[in-house]
Structure to design on (935 residues):
């Protein structure tokens, strides 16, 4: 288990490096959690296929990478940003269709939606497997994402980790701006707080639902794009983070952006650090176990929303 | 000797993020009294009942029932202590029959093991039939709850309360949505129910109130505005300004 | 006696369902199938325990658990530990570095049996554990969550998280639990070889009997006032509190009962299939149990059995012939059951099957003895 063979400065380096490894995990979790939280907050729906939308985004980036290599090799280093945008739109459009075809029929039946989205995740997984094969793939990452910064001898900060973190914070900030500064964001907030009244004042709540679902899925697509910089993608990559993502959302307190960020950060860091000291998956197990225990004592999470029903 | 109130509310307050729905409220109810609470919408009347029966958590004050503190107790414990609540919209179990609605309200076997061993014995059946008669539902005993009319649902809910046999009954707008004849029958029903029990009723129908109330409390903005007999209240200028109109 | 008939068997309708299932499981299958296929059916029967448990928990109490695999696995692991210890006596394992302990412990350089394994040398203890361990876990978890009024989607995903924790935890500790490969190479139970055909037949019948027993027990519980309280809770949970009931205690009770039923299923699984692994405990198997229940009709105890049998049979067939298609099919099945057939097979039977049977009956009864004008039947 815990090896006590390191010096203090080595411990420090370990923490810093694990800290940065944790930041990559934090970014992916944050992006996934943002998408899930928006949908959960808006419609009370937990989309168990959320991970598959992430995978969809990752595969989109992979496709973009291949296309660029085959047809526009000179474009090489620049495709990545466009690929991220493409991932957002592909996932978002599929999300829009899914809401229209499936989710809206299950309005007010959250448990049934849970099961239906699980079915959807199976279908999406198999589709990805049939189209892209069962083996994991990686897009060709541009040069500027490779390598690392070395502030000191023992500390190695990978650039892709920094990029991903920057991207997540940018997206989080973007979501915040959108929610509180845009017209659609206002309609979103109104519908969440009082759906009946919102309908009564002329807001098309169904259209808002559809848009929000698509937005949440689109953000998952970005998470997928981010994910390609830190790991390879397979058809069941989506499954890896879905439970963690939900716990992040619930642990943070479902209504709160600050909660989601804090929660993602805490969980990612805890898992990262523990993973170093414990064998195999025990780091993850311990983190999950602690979160579940905390949730049993305090189900409303870290920053619960205080809304009078 | 201190008066023996059945319900003693002292400085009751509930604040939702700064907004005080009930603000430092004091109210004392005598045994066998029928008190009606009136007041404009938003005055906090339903909230008071919510606080007493445990549906909402108070942020300050105390509610003593027969000398015992009720604030902070779980809802089912408050019910078992002897307080019964009827809700504003008829709240019966639609997928059970009238008989089963009444049976479930019978105050025996309400724990898990009590339910496992509960027998539908003679005394239970007798009591259910008796209560059904009192609430004008003797002919609808085996009808599903969902098929009752609005007024019948209200009566069934009162019947369920009677089955519980509480010492304090709290009713929230018991005649809302009823036709005049239904109101009349309900007034008779409540008069019977009130015998030997204490009642706390919220109502808007002034005629109805005048018929049944012993004392009236007027609420406004979470506080008690005035209290007294119906005549006193109707003559009170403050009440006229706020609620009754000239 | 009449009460037993009505409450436990479910009156005339229940008796019919009960007889059909009993005949199917205990007469039709054993006489028409090879022992190999029957053993498969026996495996599906153990999954049916989980499906039945969900009828109680989800169909009747409205609590969706995506973690029934936990309890299935706990019961299974208890039994597996007992059987493994019996198969790891010092003589059989004399080639190990440390004889007398299970092989996977030896591979992980353990030199003595961990403390929590020791009581499982005893069959009586194991039998009690199969029931007590899932019950205890359900009691603690249920209490913590239901008292705090955690329900619905939250509860479902938390059970999913706990299933993940258990499966990863077992997976990652090969020395103590057999790890990813699970506990295998089980041979005898109290000296009786469970791998022979003869034993397999007996274990099959035992599983079926216990399954039917669990169904009868569930029928009984639902026929008491508890059934009515659960109905009321599904309609207006909040209101039930104001009728004087502590809602949480009922949910905990049903949760514990469902856990026990699952645990028994898990134990029979190990006896019939001969191993236990974390792949049966985690997220995917737990949610598959939900689909067995949903396909059968989540409020129908008998339906759940058919659901488990049907879905698993389909899975076997698909996996043999069209493995790629199976995930599609199952995904589509989840969606179809939720959107199109929320009452599952049982619902279809109630709405259409019965009418069909009645119609067939009428057609058969109306066969004309004399043909009237223009071929119209005349009742004789």
């Amino acid at each position: 288990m815990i090896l006590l063979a390191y010096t203090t400065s080595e411990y420090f380096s370990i923490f810093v490096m694990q800290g940065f490894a944790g930041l990559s995990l934090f970014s992916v979790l944050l992006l996934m959690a943002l998408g899930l939280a928006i949908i959960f907050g808006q419609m009370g729906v937990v989309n168990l296929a959320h991970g598959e939308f992430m995978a969809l985004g990752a595969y989109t980036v992979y496709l973009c990478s291949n296309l660029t290599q085959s047809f526009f090799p000179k474009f090489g280093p620049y495709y990545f940003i466009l690929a991220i945008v493409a991932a957002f739109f592909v996932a978002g459009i599929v999300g829009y269709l899914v809401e229209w075809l499936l989710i809206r029929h299950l309005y007010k039946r959250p448990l049934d939606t849970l099961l239906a989205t699980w079915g959807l995740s199976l279908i999406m997984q198999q589709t990805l497997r049939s189209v892209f094969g069962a083996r994991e793939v990686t897009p060709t990452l541009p040069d500027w994402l490779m390598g690392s910064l070395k502030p000191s001898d023992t500390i190695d900060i990978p650039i892709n980790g920094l990029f991903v973190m920057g991207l997540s914070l940018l997206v989080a900030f973007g979501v915040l701006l959108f929610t509180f500064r845009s017209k659609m964001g206002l309609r979103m907030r109104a519908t969440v707080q009082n759906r009946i009244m919102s309908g009564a004042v002329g807001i098309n709540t169904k259209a808002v639902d559809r848009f929000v679902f698509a937005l949440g899925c689109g953000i998952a697509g970005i998470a997928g794009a981010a994910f390609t910089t830190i790991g390879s993608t397979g058809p069941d990559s989506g499954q890896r983070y879905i439970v963690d993502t939900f716990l992040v959302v619930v642990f943070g307190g479902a209504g709160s952006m600050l909660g989601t960020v804090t929660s993602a950060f805490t969980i990612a860091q805890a898992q990262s650090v523990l993973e170093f000291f414990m064998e195999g998956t025990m780091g993850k197990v311990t983190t999950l176990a602690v979160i579940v225990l905390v949730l049993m004592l305090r189900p409303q999470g870290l920053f619960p929303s205080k809304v009078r029903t | 000797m201190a008066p023996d109130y059945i319900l003693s509310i002292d400085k009751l307050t509930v604040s939702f993020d700064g907004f005080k729905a009930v603000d430092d409220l004091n109210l004392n109810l005598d045994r066998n009294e029928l008190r009606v609470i009136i007041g404009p919408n938003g005055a906090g009347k339903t909230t008071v009942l919510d606080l007493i029966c445990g549906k909402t958590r108070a942020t300050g004050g105390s509610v003593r029932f027969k000398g015992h503190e009720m604030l902070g107790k779980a809802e089912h414990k408050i019910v078992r202590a002897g307080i019964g609540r009827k809700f504003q919209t008829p709240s019966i179990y639609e997928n059970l029959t009238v008989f089963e609605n009444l049976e479930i309200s019978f105050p025996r076997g309400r724990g898990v093991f009590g339910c496992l061993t509960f027998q539908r014995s003679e005394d239970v059946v007798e009591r259910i039939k008796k209560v059904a008669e009192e609430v004008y539902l003797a002919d609808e005993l085996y009808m599903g709850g969902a098929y009752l009319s609005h007024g019948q649902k209200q009566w069934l809910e009162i019947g369920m309360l009677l089955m519980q046999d509480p010492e304090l009954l709290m009713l929230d707008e018991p005649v809302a949505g009823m036709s005049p004849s239904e109101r009349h029958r309900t007034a008779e029903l409540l008069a019977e129910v009130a015998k030997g029990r204490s009642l706390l009723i919220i109502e808007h129908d002034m005629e109805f109130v005048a018929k049944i109330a012993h004392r009236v409390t007027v609420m406004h903005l979470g506080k008690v505005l005035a209290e007294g007999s119906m005549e006193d209240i109707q003559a009170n200028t403050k009440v006229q300004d706020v609620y009754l109109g000239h | 006696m009449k009460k037993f008939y009505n409450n436990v068997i479910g009156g005339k309708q229940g008796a019919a369902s009960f007889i059909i299932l009993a005949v199917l499981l205990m007469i039709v299958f054993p006489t028409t199938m090879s022992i190999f296929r029957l053993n498969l059916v026996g495996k599906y029967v153990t999954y049916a325990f989980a499906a039945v448990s969900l009828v109680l928990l989800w169909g009747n109490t409205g609590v969706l658990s995506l973690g029934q695999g936990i309890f299935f696995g706990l019961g299974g692991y208890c039994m597996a530990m007992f059987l493994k210890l019996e198969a790891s006596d010092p003589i059989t394992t004399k080639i190990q570095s440390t004889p007398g302990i299970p092989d996977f412990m030896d591979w992980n350089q353990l030199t003595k049996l961990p403390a929590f394994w020791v009581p499982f040398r005893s069959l009586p203890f194991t039998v009690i554990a199969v029931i007590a361990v899932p019950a205890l876990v359900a009691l603690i978890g249920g209490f913590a969550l239901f008292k705090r009024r955690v329900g619905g989607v939250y509860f479902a995903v938390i059970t999913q998280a706990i299933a993940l924790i258990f499966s990863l935890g077992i997976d990652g500790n090969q020395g103590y639990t057999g790890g990813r490969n699970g506990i295998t190479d089980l041979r005898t139970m109290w000296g009786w070889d469970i791998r022979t055909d003869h034993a397999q037949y007996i274990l099959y019948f035992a599983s079926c009997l216990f399954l039917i027993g669990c169904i009868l027990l569930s029928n009984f519980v639902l026929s008491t006032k508890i059934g009515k309280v659960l109905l009321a809770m599904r309609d207006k949970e909040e209101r039930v509190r104001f009728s004087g009931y502590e809602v949480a205690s009922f949910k905990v009770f049903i949760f514990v009962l469902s856990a026990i039923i699952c645990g028994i299923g898990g134990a029979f699984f190990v006896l019939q299939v001969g191993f236990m692994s974390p792949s049966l405990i985690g997220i995917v198997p737990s949610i598959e149990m939900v689909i067995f229940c949903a396909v059968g009709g989540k409020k129908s105890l008998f339906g759940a059995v058919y659901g488990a049998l049907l879905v698993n049979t389909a899975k076997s067939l698909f996996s043999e012939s069209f493995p790629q298609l199976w995930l599609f099919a199952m995904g589509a099945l989840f969606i179809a059951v939720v959107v199109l057939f929320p009452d599952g097979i049982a619902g279809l039977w109630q709405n259409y099957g019965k009418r069909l049977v009645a119609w067939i009956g009428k057609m058969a009864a109306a066969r004309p003895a004399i043909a009237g004008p223009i071929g119209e039947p005349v009742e004789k």
In short: Chain B has a mean pLDDT of 88. The first strand of chain B starts at residue 7 and ends at 16.
